[in-house]
Design goal:
heterodimer; A: alpha+beta; Immunoglobulin-like; 3-stranded mixed beta sheet; 10 helices; elongated; B: mainly alpha; Cytochrome Bc1 Complex, Chain D, domain 2; 3 domains; 20 helices; about 50% helix; flat; electron transport (chain A); copper (chain A); metal-binding (chain A); Cupredoxin (chain A); Cytochrome aa3 subunit 2 (chain A)
């Protein structure tokens, strides 16, 4: 199949979730064929790439669960207030009206109009403020973290550097793995425009601001694969800027990190030669080869990542070839220039080489 | 008072008033002031005489209308011969090849881009000859057309030659490139074959020098440049996909064969290299100067890739060699790349992103480094 014609978009996890049930129920109610088609079209357009679960209401981390709890507390509190206010209104417009004496009216206004909202809002605000130290790591949280992951937002991808105590930093991109049950500190920066770091089921979001380092602490409590979207509009391909976050058992995580720290072990191949000859190494690093550029994502172990193009395409040879040929179509506004002028055999050879970098 | 009554009153008043009287002094004054205004208007320079923007559609129509009408009227006095001189076709073709084809083009011979930028644009004669009578063609060929680039016939007393040319023009629409070549240059000849590759190289040497090192700071060194790069760049000029007023005219109509020989010739001369004189560019050194740092390492925080990532050793032959290139030339090209105005080989757009974030200072530093580290000079 020619590279430039393969246009299959990855299907989304969201299609299988609650949204589908809702949509199909709506379609049933509507009954018309066109309505159903519209719903399907809507779902196709809004579906997210299959990077993993992306709901903040299904938490898998300590921070996200506090946020989820806060959310439910706010929802319940808000619902009670609403019921109370609506009841008061119904009472006020009831058919047989009775005039209150001044004393009763004054008491009603004082208790229901002043004391009740002040107390409720104070409780909700107090709860939210009480949660904040856990979400924003202050000094104690930093000291407790053994692993620090530096994430730099760039148009439109993520550079991740793992800082292990007393060891060389490990550079990778567009995929963040973290151990379950261990607190991880994130230092967040940006080198171009404002991005925002968010792994809804684990924690965040936190802006990434050029010239500033923001901190975020995350404690994953369950293993899983999650989608981390950029949560601040950052340019043409903002919607195509995401990463996979994978929480793993600590043992598995440590062996993964050790493997990630090592250089690539490519077999000598046409693809390896062409990658350097065509100048890809001016922007991309593949440790252990002549490619040492730092303008684009590190590709040392790109073959083992879940997705390519920062959560844009599934990690297959076909998709890698397509990305090489037309990044301007796959990711409008991306810094990588298109290489569609290369012979297709060269593009395929490089795609095979990259996919083999496990 | 109603509006209608007011209108009627106004009408009565104004019809009672005497009409504007034009006296002789008004007329004289008008004709004195008019030329002064015209001169002032011309002196202000606001009227745009640029050829680049073209005429308004209506001006264009009017000028053509005036030209065609004038030719039609003046051709009434031309006495046509009974038959056009058949034997005149060949010498007229020979003359056409050196005097007319440069502006009007000829079958199989494209005009240079410079001629296509004339205003008015010289028409492709094969498509317009049929819109004129023989007498009208005679009139145009003999007397030329004022305010266009069309000259009069060099010898005004040789009407016989003008009729030869009219005879040739009548044949022109039916001529293919082969027939035209045979008429204009002789059997088996063509403009290309009349010029040897040595003559071509002498043509290039006017600016690039016999040694290919360039005779000015703004002319690139092409000696020792990668053959594939030279080939594709020249081809881009021939196909007019790379902008360049000087080179597109110089390379006009070159055949693939000639382009190949020229690229081979200059690639074989000693000049540019892929490695710096002072050692390998692949090794990062401490305290290197800014230009060298950008060329060797790039600047990842500003998304500037290293020049040598593509222009270093063992890279694709379409990527040009830079060590020993002239600094002024590199600077100009980088600025053009930064503005996305520079095209050329199918790979040239890679430089748009690479140069996008370079500052003028970066460009000067990189150019100085690449120029000073010439390999074989």
């Amino acid at each position: 199949m020619p590279i430039l014609r393969a246009r299959a978009r990855p299907t989304g996890a969201a299609e299988k979730g609650g949204a589908l049930t809702l949509a199909s129920r709506r379609a049933r109610n509507n009954g018309s064929q066109s309505g159903r088609r519209l719903c399907v079209a809507f779902l196709t357009v809004t579906s997210v790439p299959a990077l993993g679960q992306a709901s903040a209401l299904d938490p898998a981390g300590a921070e996200a669960s506090s946020i989820a709890t806060l959310f439910w507390a706010m929802v319940v509190g808000g619902a009670l207030l609403w019921l109370f206010v609506v009841s008061l209104m119904l009472y006020g417009i009831r058919r047989r009206r009775r005039v209150h004496d001044e004393w009763t009216a004054g008491r009603l206004i004082f208790w229901a109009g002043a004391v009740f909202p002040v107390v409720t809002l104070f409780l909700l605000l107090g709860y939210a403020l009480w949660l904040m130290p856990q979400l924003r790591p202050w000094a104690p949280a930093q000291a407790a973290a053994t692993l620090r992951i530096e994430v730099e937002g760039r148009q439109f991808w993520w550079r991740a550097v793992y800082h292990r105590p007393g060891d060389q930093p490990v550079v990778t991109a567009n995929e963040i793995r973290l151990p379950v049950g261990e607190r991880v500190e994130f230092t967040l920066t940006s080198s171009d425009v404002i991005h925002s770091f968010w792994i809804p089921p684990l924690g965040g979001k936190m802006d990434m601001i050029p010239g500033r380092t923001n901190r975020l602490s995350i404690l994953a409590t369950k293993p899983g694969t999650f989608r981390g979207p950029c949560a601040e509009f950052c340019g043409a391909s903002h919607a195509l800027m995401a990463f996979s976050a994978i929480s793993m058992e600590p043992e598995a995580f440590r062996s993964w990190l050790a493997a990630e720290a090592g250089p690539a072990r490519p077999q000598p191949s046409d693809g390896a030669r062409l990658f350097v000859e065509n100048g890809c190494g001016a922007c991309h690093t593949i440790r252990g080869t002549a490619a040492s550029g730092e303008v684009g994502p590190d590709l040392t172990h790109v073959g083992s990542r879940l997705m390519i193009g920062a959560g844009t395409l599934p990690n297959t040879e076909e998709a890698i070839a397509r990305f090489i040929a037309e990044p301007d179509v796959v990711k409008p506004g991306s810094t990588m220039p298109p290489f569609r002028m290369l012979p297709e055999t060269e593009i395929r050879a490089m795609a095979a080489y990259l996919k083999a970098l496990q | 008072m109603s509006a209608y009554a007011a209108f009627k009153a106004w009408l009565a008043r104004s019809s009672a008033r005497p009409a504007v009287t034009i006296r002789w002094r008004h007329v004289v004054g008008f004709f004195v002031v008019l030329p002064i205004l015209a001169v002032l208007g011309a002196w202000s320079g606001l009227y745009n005489v640029a050829a680049s923007t073209g005429h308004w559609k209506i001006t264009d129509w009017f000028l053509h209308f005036a030209m065609r009408s004038s030719v039609r009227t003046y051709a009434l006095g031309v006495a046509e011969p009974a038959t056009l001189p058949d034997a005149g076709v060949q010498p007229a073709a020979g003359h056409f090849a050196i005097a007319c084809a440069v502006c009007h083009g000829a079958p199989g011979e494209p005009r240079t881009q410079a001629m296509l930028r004339m205003l008015p644009y010289p028409p492709d004669l094969a498509s317009v000859v049929d819109t004129w009578t023989d007498a009208q063609l005679f009139r145009i060929v003999k007397h030329g057309v004022r305010f266009t680039g069309m000259p009069a016939w060099p010898a005004q007393d040789r009407d016989d030659e003008v009729w030869d040319m009219v005879a040739f023009l009548r044949r022109l629409p039916s001529l293919g490139p082969g027939e035209y070549r045979e008429l204009a240059y002789g059997p088996g000849q063509s403009k290309e074959f009349m010029v040897s590759i040595e003559d071509r190289i002498a043509d290039c040497s006017r600016c690039h020098g016999k040694d290919g090192l360039g005779r000015s700071a703004l002319v690139p060194v092409i000696a020792g440049q990668s053959e594939a790069y030279l080939l594709e760049s020249l081809r881009a000029y021939v196909r007019r996909t790379r902008p360049g007023g000087i080179m597109s005219v110089a390379a006009n109509g070159l055949s693939d064969e000639v382009v190949g020989s020229l690229a081979r010739h200059y690639a074989g001369l000693p000049g540019l290299s892929r490695v710096p004189r002072s050692g390998s560019g692949e090794v990062a050194r401490i305290n290197m100067e800014e230009g060298e740092r950008i060329a060797v390492q790039g600047d990842s925080s500003r998304s500037i890739p290293a020049c040598l990532g593509c222009h270093g050793q063992d890279r694709r032959p379409q990527y040009p060699r830079l060590f020993g290139q002239r600094a002024d030339y590199i600077e100009e090209q980088l600025r053009l790349f930064r503005e996305r105005k520079r095209t050329g080989t199918p790979f040239s757009h890679l430089m748009w992103n690479a140069a996008h974030r370079l500052t003028d200072a970066d460009i000067a530093a990189v150019a100085a480094y690449l120029a000073s580290e010439g390999g074989a000079k």
